[in-house]
Amino acid sequence: MLTNYIKIAWKVLLRHPFYTFITLFGISLTLTVLMVLTSFIDHIIGSHYPETNRDRSLYIEKMALRDSSRTSQNTGPMSFKFLTQYAKSLKTPEKVTITSFFRTSNAYAGSQKIKLNTKYTDAAFWEVMNFTFLEGKPYNDQNIRNGELVAVITDDFRRQYFSDLSEPVVGKDIEVESVHYKVIGVVKGSPPTRFFSYADIYFPYTVPKSNYEQDDIMGGYVAVILAKKASDRKAIQDEFQDKIRRIPLPGNRNGFKYAMLEVGCAPYLESVLSIFMEGGPQVKVIFYSVIAFLMLMLMGLPAINLVNVNVSRIMERSSEIGIRKAFGAPIRTLLMQFIVENIFITFIGGSIALLLTLITIYFINNSGWIAYADLTINLNVFLVSIGVCLIFGLLSGVAPALRMSKLSIVEALKS
Amino acid sequence: MIRHLFRLIWNKKKAHALLMVEIWASFLVLFGLGSMIVFNVSNYVEPLGFSYERVWAVDFNNNQDTTAMQDKVNTILQRLKAYPEVESVSRMSSNYPFSTNTMNNGVDYKKRHVMSHFYTTDADFAQTLDMPLVAGRWYGKGDLGGKYKPVVINRKTQEALFLDENPLGKVFGDFRVVGVIDNFKAKGEFMTNAPAVFEMIEAKNTWDKIYLVKTKPGTDAMFEAKLVKEMSTMLVGWNVEVNPLVDSRKNQHNLTLVPVIIFLIICFFLLINVALGLFGVLNLSIAKRRSEIGLRRAIGATARQVSWQFVAEIWVLATFSLLFGLLFAVQFPIMHVFDLASGVYIGAIALAVAIIYGLVTLCALFPSRQAATIHPAVALHEE
């Protein structure tokens, strides 16, 4: 039966190439936009190189100090000292790493300028993040204690800084802002969209200019906590907040008297959202409703378009419907047939969209728009896409099918 | 004629409802796109107000070194000025041109309130960025030490605070106005020309350590490397970072342009989609009305009149949907959503309406031509 429906659908498709084109264009365009979008969101929030442990990690990225009347506040990353005292000392996690957040610098190779993102980290950073070492090894606690001037660089920076790529660069000297460092390892770089691991060059936190000795509670450092398993995260959050509650309040920081001290310790998505969105829940609601409205418009428009074309075209098939009805096909069977046909067509559109998405993703990955971009269609993205295909097919199939089922036999057979 | 068209559409209201929803939705998408474009274009056409081509922002960070800061801050200035490659140097706060930092403060004068961008700069700022003054002069060393701090304001602040009064010498808060400049769009061409106040940097200020260095033509990265090397040797433990303003400007532009371009591409495909769909639906509906067309032709309507009828029908349909869409769109200027000027929304509405009419006309043109070629004898014979 199903093969029959599909055969009919195929014949209908071939009958009017122009309308087939309109239908498939709409479906594949919409699904491509959706698939690229899901793939992009997955690139941003999914667990990918080098943050492959993201699903069992917690992120401490921001502290907020507020005065008692809540009129003014200081927000930002924390100091190395604060994180050592409150995050590094946690009992439940497997590993805790402290690393600096956004820092930029420049290096000069001859007359060429290289823009740099730098990171000062502890040794645990290399265990929390799963970097692939192309050469050498990471720095360890020993290197850090001795205050050695060593650095781990990315392959991208190696290509820019060293003219001769044939020989290994481990042990060679690089100069950043008049300080000479010895290259100890080379890693495959991380995309800039992964804030906690992205940099061009990584230093132990004991090198000059890292400000780790700063005697303050706020500073330029964040922490990533790696739990033994994902379900431990709740216990870690509780343990951390319990420690934070014991900080004496009110306090005074450089003349700013604060009565409230909040430190977030949350899974990746939550902490990233809190970096970009300030200003309370109201702003979030507006932001999300605008996004939702836009998405609805972008997806709804092609759907309405498709329904429109389908409704207009259903009359083409009135004689077929009339005959089937006259021979006793119940409305339910006819409805099923049209919905199956529509889902079939949607899946053809879906396959085209998959192809288009692969091409788009290939271009995004190779355009250099995001360095080290690794957008992929993985299982999650694919499943979401299939789900969207089904919804889309049902959405555009139900209305025309209902319209048709109301047709009386006499009307249908008249033509 | 119009009444007749209304009746025709009313008779088929169920079939037309979907078409109207489609046009309505396209209008809203176009309205969103239009707002973005009109907003950015109207900002872009305003002059920038300063020149940045040969200027570098050199950012110093003292890290853990806190000794003799005032001396060091002045030494840096003298040292930078001494380079033969350097034309002029000015020290300012971290919200330097094209940076991502902003500093906003409310200022009041005679119960008039305005939120203004605050820039802390020194006496050489106008010279370094080639900023012409409209009235008065830029502040100098002699202006410090009085009861009021000297400030230069831009035209937007002047208009908001002083209306038609002469602002020179006027006092607001603990500031006294010494000069007025025209525009200052610090975030680049796409920034709204916002009110700005330039405050003079005080001797005790050692925390603002951005130095704007205007280089002579032909200066390259070799000098940049030399500058960074000498500065970081002179100041042990300090960070020195050079950002040519040209690069920072590109970053600021990308922040604005990338979302607009993505949105534009998606909208373009959506519109093609809608256009094809409309075209298909109109084609089908005209094919269904052959007998009606045949009858009209038989009783003397010209081909032109017939094709005009179909175009006019789709116009009436579009007008209905647009009126419905306008109900939504006018909420934006009325409720001041996103703090944009009403003019932007009105411009966007006009743009969206024009595009919708253009689109439906284009889609109706071909099917209506087809309709006009129908021969009355053939059409009536089929019936």
Sum this structure up briefly.
Chain A has about 425 residues and is of the alpha+beta class. Chain A contains 13 helices and 15 strands. Chain A folds into two domains: about 1-45 and about 280-415, no CATH class; about 60-265, no CATH class.
Structure explained in plain terms:
The complex is a heterodimer of chains A (415) and B (383). Chain A is an alpha+beta fold. Chain A has 2 domains: 2-47 and 282-414, no CATH class; 62-263, no CATH class. Chain A is 48% helix and 18% strand. Chain A is built from 13 helices and 15 strands. In chain A, strands 5, 6, 7, 8, 9, 10 and 11 form a 7-stranded mixed sheet that branches. A 3-stranded antiparallel sheet of chain A has the order 1-12-4. In chain A, strands 3-2-15 form a 3-stranded antiparallel sheet, with no helix packed on it. In chain A, helix 1 packs across helix 11 (331-367), helix 2 runs antiparallel to helix 12 (379-405) and helix 11 packs antiparallel against helix 12 (379-405). The radius of gyration of chain A is 29 Å and the shape is elongated. The two termini of chain A are 27 Å apart. The model of chain A has no long low-confidence stretch (mean pLDDT 85). With 383 residues, chain B is α+β, with helices and mostly antiparallel strands. Chain B has 2 domains: 2-45 and 252-382, no CATH class; 90-214, no CATH class. Chain B is built from 12 helices and 11 strands. Chain B has helices at residues 2-11, 13-44, 69-82, 125-128, 155-162, 221-234, 245-288, 290-298, 303-329, 331-335, 342-372, 376-382, and strands spanning 55-61, 86-92, 104-109, 112-121, 133-136, 149-154, 171-172, 175-181, 196-200, 210-215, 239-244. In chain B, the strands form 2 sheets. In chain B, strands 3, 4, 5, 6, 7, 8 and 9 form a 7-stranded mixed sheet that branches. In chain B, strands 2-10-1-11 form a 4-stranded antiparallel sheet. Chain B starts with a helix and ends with a helix. The mean pLDDT of chain B is 88. The A-B interface holds A 18-19, 21-22, 25-26, 29, 33, 104-106, 108, 111-113, 177-179, 208-209, 211, 213-214, 294, 297-298, 300-302, 304-309, 311-313, 315 and B 15, 18-19, 21-22, 25-26, 28-29, 32, 61, 63-64, 220-222, 224-225, 228-229, 232-233, 237-242, 266, 269-270, 272-274, 276-277, 279-281, 284-285, 288.
